[in-house]
Specification:
With about 350 residues, chain A is an all-alpha fold. Chain A has 15 helices and no strands. The chains are: A mainly alpha (about 350), B alpha/beta (about 500).
Chain lengths: ~350, ~500
């Protein structure tokens, strides 16, 4: 029986691993067709991430919002909800944290920093709660309402910055040092990368997802409602309240992701004319990570590594950095067609038995 | 002699389990052959192998004496093998004829020839005495009729070997009788039938021979004329079984459930429970008999707080629970074995262990201050699995992967273990095999002996007659009469269920 369990786990793990390999292979084929050297390209990515502290630091830095966005998607998914609104929740979280930091700039760091982080989480929570209540009360599908909320977030934050927190360069002023997550220690350690203390928040979030879902009674309820709203209702659970709660918690994770960008990476917020893409990449991160906390960290690392290493790929191997987006898209494509991979392996192993 | 179907030494293994171990099934031309076994014995696997949904690891299949490889259901259809599924695969909004021809439509000049389709369906229906109206929409016909549409679908595709997968599970007693006649007529017209079942009564009423399988192994193939129900039952279960569990004497105690002047609306806002009064005492099993759709489901849902009560009151242990939240009613002492065990009774993607605490997970000792005590839950689950003989690899196994009987045992274990004052059992043994029925009946009687009140709702009159201390007959949303099971019989109940009170007057 324990053998069986191992086999099953191995099969589920297979899909993301095979998808990554296939994605990289297809990327190599595309490079060959256009006339670049894929070996050199991948070599430059790997070397930069693992051997150059600056790119290593930047990779971890890029992981922070990606992992938080991934956790947000995965958490909602585990409770039967598809949160496409991570992008919007992240934007309002980003804005709220920066706004809080600027407005209460006179407060000491011990108060201001936690307060700004909480402000980001709270804004994300609100942005998740609205689709939650729409679904629970009026049965509005969360996919529709969360997409809509993304646009509201994009233009509302732009409006608020323009009218209340505007400074030269189409952005907010820089936040006071008392609210910053940046660290000269970490920067020196990584030869001047923008790595900041936000990774601690990301680690806590990963742990929190696991703890809430599998160790608390609320998590038990959330998962039960996600799997079977009917059986949960029959068992006396409040299905509507759990839907609202799930999207709210998911929104907190996403909002924290935004706060990390605002308080850590950039120290301000620009007037965005388009989405950051982090929230949408979060969907991919969750998908590739099989919606598990550890999986989200691993796939977040992969995506962050590809994005950061892509820059050296451009300078060292001459391959345009856009190709990285194509590879990421291919990986997602293969994960999405995981059924085909499963089927193919089933066929192969059956032939092997005969 | 050649067989219509011969499956020789079939072996099919799934990770961790041998579903079919060297099974041989020989179906003669023109016979009704029963495939008899408990849930999880491997009947469905064997039939899925025959139907091309699974490939056997070992063994050979012969159809009309010729060796065949059946790779998918299309191959099976080509060989004349048709399956009448337990869960119908029909499109509600389509007419009978449209459903039957779907996928193989008669055409005229490249366009659908509906007139011809209707004609073909009519002819087939008359030839086999199915009495189906081709122009009616599926959503407007009864379940029994829908099943006949399924039969017609296979006939239309030219099947001469028909597999019936537990066909009577969804039928009323009268419909079962009619189905058996239809099967006999099909055989009379030269078809061969495999009947998958775990109901003894049907086998003795319809079949010629019977192959018994148990835990994936062939036990025996016997001619029905040479055997008797109790031998066959023992063969299936592998030990001596009581087809009827001995009931305990009737010793009613104080009132546990009191329903007064209850009125409930259904989902279409139509009065479905009308001025219903009912009392269930501790130490009794009250059976509710009635034809499906007379308000049984709504009555139970109203008691459990899942459906709004328009008027009237429901009390459990003198506690008014009318229109209370479900959790409060559960805490007031309600245990509930729901009719649809997969949809309402279990979270299928939860493990068996997690399902064991579906109503109690937030209470001590399973949790404290919002933190689950997984060790305690696991321990409890292990204890219940053993106590209730749930056949599962472990408490970590997903409920989805258990057989129907074992899923039901998980629910019964959970509900009984909470020791509720009132236990509602809705169709508690529907679709279960003899071993599991015996077990669940035993548990219900045990609860009664402990002085609990049991409200039993069932379409199986045998079950109602055998277990109940009093029988309330429900008709069009109210209790038309309460009878003593010792002084009544199926005929009188049948009349009451149709709305006729003693003396022959319409109610």
């Amino acid at each position: 029986m324990s053998n069986l369990l191992k086999k099953v786990n191995w099969m589920t793990l297979l899909i993301p691993i095979v998808s990554v390999i296939l994605g990289l292979l297809c990327g190599a084929v595309i490079m060959l067709i256009i006339g670049y050297n894929p070996v050199l390209a991948y070599q430059s990515i790997i070397e930069s991430i693992f051997l150059q502290p600056y790119y290593g630091g930047e990779t971890i830095r890029a992981m922070i919002p990606l992992v938080l966005a991934g956790i947000a998607v995965a958490f909602a998914f585990r409770t039967g909800l598809f949160n496409i609104g991570v992008e919007g929740q992240l934007l309002v979280g980003w804005f709220a944290s920066v706004a809080c930091a600027i407005c209460f700039g006179h407060l000491p760091k011990v108060i201001l920093l936690p307060m700004s982080i909480i402000a980001g989480g709270a804004a994300g929570a609100l942005w998740g709660f609205i689709p939650g209540i729409l679904k629970a009360r009026f049965k509005v599908h969360e996919v529709i309402s969360t997409i809509m909320m993304n646009y509201i977030a994009l233009y509302t934050t732009a409006y608020l910055i323009k009218n209340f927190l505007y400074t030269e360069g189409e952005r907010t002023p820089t936040i006071p040092a008392a609210a910053s997550l940046a660290s000269t220690f970490l920067a020196n350690l990584t030869q001047g990368s923008r790595l900041h203390w936000g990774f601690v928040v990301a680690i806590i979030a990963v742990f929190a997802m696991w703890f809430i879902l599998w160790k608390t009674t609320k998590g038990y309820e959330l998962r039960a409602v996600g799997f079977s709203p009917d059986a949960s209702k029959y068992a006396g659970m409040n299905v509507s309240r759990n839907i609202m709660l799930s999207l709210t918690i998911s929104g907190i994770f996403a909002g924290l992701g935004g706060a990390m960008e605002g308080l850590g990476t950039y120290q301000y917020m620009t007037i965005n004319s388009a989405f950051t893409g982090i929230g949408f990449n979060g969907i991919a991160v969750a998908l590739l990570g099989l919606n598990t906390p550890v999986g989200v960290v691993l796939s977040g690392a992969l995506f962050a590594g590809l994005q950061t290493g892509g820059l050296t790929m451009q300078s060292d191997a001459g391959v345009p950095v856009e190709l990285i987006q194509i590879i990421i898209a291919l990986i997602i494509f293969f994960v999405g067609s995981g059924y085909v991979i499963k089927w193919a392996f089933g066929r192969l192993s059956r032939k092997g038995h005969k | 002699m050649s067989y219509a179907i011969e499956m020789r030494n079939i072996r099919k293994e799934f990770p961790g389990i041998v579903a079919n171990d060297d099974i041989t099934l020989q179906v003669q031309e023109g016979e009704i052959h029963a495939l008899f076994g408990e849930n999880g014995a491997g009947k469905s696997t064997l039939m899925n192998v025959l139907f091309g949904l699974y490939q056997p690891d070992q063994g050979e299949i012969y159809v009309h004496g010729k060796k065949e490889f059946i790779n998918d259901p299309n191959d099976a259809a080509r060989l004349g093998i048709g399956m009448v599924h337990q869960h119908f695969m029909l499109i509600d909004k389509f007419t009978v004829a449209e459903n039957i021809i779907l996928g193989r439509e008669p055409k005229k000049h490249g366009a659908l020839d509906m007139a011809k389709a209707v004609k073909i369906v009519k002819e087939l229906s008359e030839r086999y005495g199915l009495d189906v109206d081709p122009n009616k929409k599926v959503e407007d016909i009864t379940v029994g009729m829908q099943q006949r549409v399924e039969i017609l679908k296979t006939l239309y595709r030219g099947s001469d070997i028909l597999i019936f997968d537990e066909p009577t599970a969804v039928l009323t007693p009268l419909e079962i009788k009619e189905l058996i006649e239809i099967m006999k007529r099909l055989v009379g017209e030269g078809k061969s039938i495999i009947l998958i079942t775990h109901k003894l009564k049907e086998i003795f009423e319809s079949c010629d021979r019977c192959t018994v399988i148990r835990r994936g192994k062939n036990i025996d193939t016997v001619a029905i004329s040479d055997t008797n129900p109790s031998d066959l039952a023992s063969m299936m279960v592998g030990r001596k079984v009581n087809i009827q569990v001995n009931n305990a004497p009737y010793d009613p105690k104080e009132k546990v459930l009191e329903i007064e002047h209850l009125n409930v609306l259904d989902s279409r806002k139509v009065d479905v429970i009308k001025d219903l009064n009912l009392t269930v005492h501790g130490g009794e099993i009250l059976g509710i008999a009635g034809v499906d759709g007379n308000g049984q489901t709504e009555l139970i849902e109203a008691i459990a707080g899942l459906r709004k009560v328009k008027d009237g009151s429901i009390k459990i242990n003198n506690d008014d629970v009318t229109n209370q939240k479900t959790r409060k009613i559960i805490e007031a002492g309600l245990g509930y074995i729901p009719e649809d065990r997969q949809k309402h009774g279990l979270v299928l993607d939860f493990s068996v262990g997690e399902n064991m605490v579906l109503q109690t997970y937030y209470k001590k000792p399973y949790a404290q201050a919002g933190i689950l005590h997984n060790k305690v839950i696991t321990k409890k689950a292990k204890q219940l699995i053993q106590e209730f003989d749930v056949r599962t690899p472990s408490e970590k196994t997903l409920a989805r992967s258990l057989s129907g009987g074992n899923q039901q045992k998980v629910i019964v274990a959970r509900e009984v273990d909470r020791s509720p004052q009132l236990l509602i059992a809705a169709q508690p043994t529907r679709g279960l095999d003899i071993g599991a029925i015996e077990f669940i009946h035993g548990k219900l009687i045990e609860e009664k002996k402990k002085g609990k009140a049991v409200l039993l709702v069932s379409f199986e009159l045998d079950e109602i007659l055998h277990l109940s201390d009093r029988i309330a007959v429900i008709y069009e949303g109210h209790i038309i009469d309460i009878v003593n099971p010792k002084e009544t019989d199926e005929n009188e109940l049948g009349l009451l269920m149709a709305g006729r009170k003693k003396g022959g007057n319409e109610a």
